[in-house]
Design brief:
The protein is mainly beta and 143 residues long. The chain has 1 helix and 8 strands.
Length: 143
């Protein structure tokens, strides 16, 4: 199971919105959807305009860190007139439960969306337990 990691995210978003002076150089948080589908968790991160080579995924213990960079225009001798698109380094951490298999995470970046498939660990999957029948007649107890 995934655990929510950033209880102050909305407060940070509101503060950033109130203090924004129109020069969006500090990137906003990476929007994310996460859900369970069968024996795996899927996590989608919106990273529009990010070069796939700048995306970096790390897992240390049960913490998954996603980092990506969106660069601004690299046109020399140009004058930036409007800068509304966020740029800079994005970073987000997820705390993964012990029931997830962090050794077999699959990541795909397509059309500005990073999709992670995290399998549920074999030991955490539901399983049937066989029941054996005991003897139907009581044993004699000798004194």
């Amino acid at each position: 199971m995934l655990m929510r990691t950033d209880p102050f995210r909305e407060l940070d978003r509101l503060t950033q919105h109130l203090l924004d002076n129109g020069s969006r150089t500090r990137p906003v948080a990476m929007p994310m959807d996460a859900y369970r589908e069968g024996d795996q968790f899927l996590v989608h991160f919106d990273l529009p305009g990010v070069d796939p080579d700048s995306v970096d995924l790390d897992v240390e213990r049960n913490v998954l860190t996603v980092r990506a960079e969106r660069k601004g225009p690299a046109v020399p001798d140009s004058e930036l007139v409007v800068a509304e698109r966020p740029r800079g380094v994005y970073s987000r951490q997820l705390f993964l439960g012990d029931n997830l298999d962090t050794e077999h995470i699959d990541a795909v970046y397509d059309a500005g969306v990073l999709t992670l498939r995290i399998p549920i660990a074999e030991r955490a999957r539901p399983r049937k337990i066989a029941i054996t029948r005991g003897e139907t007649s009581p044993k004699e107890i000798s004194a």
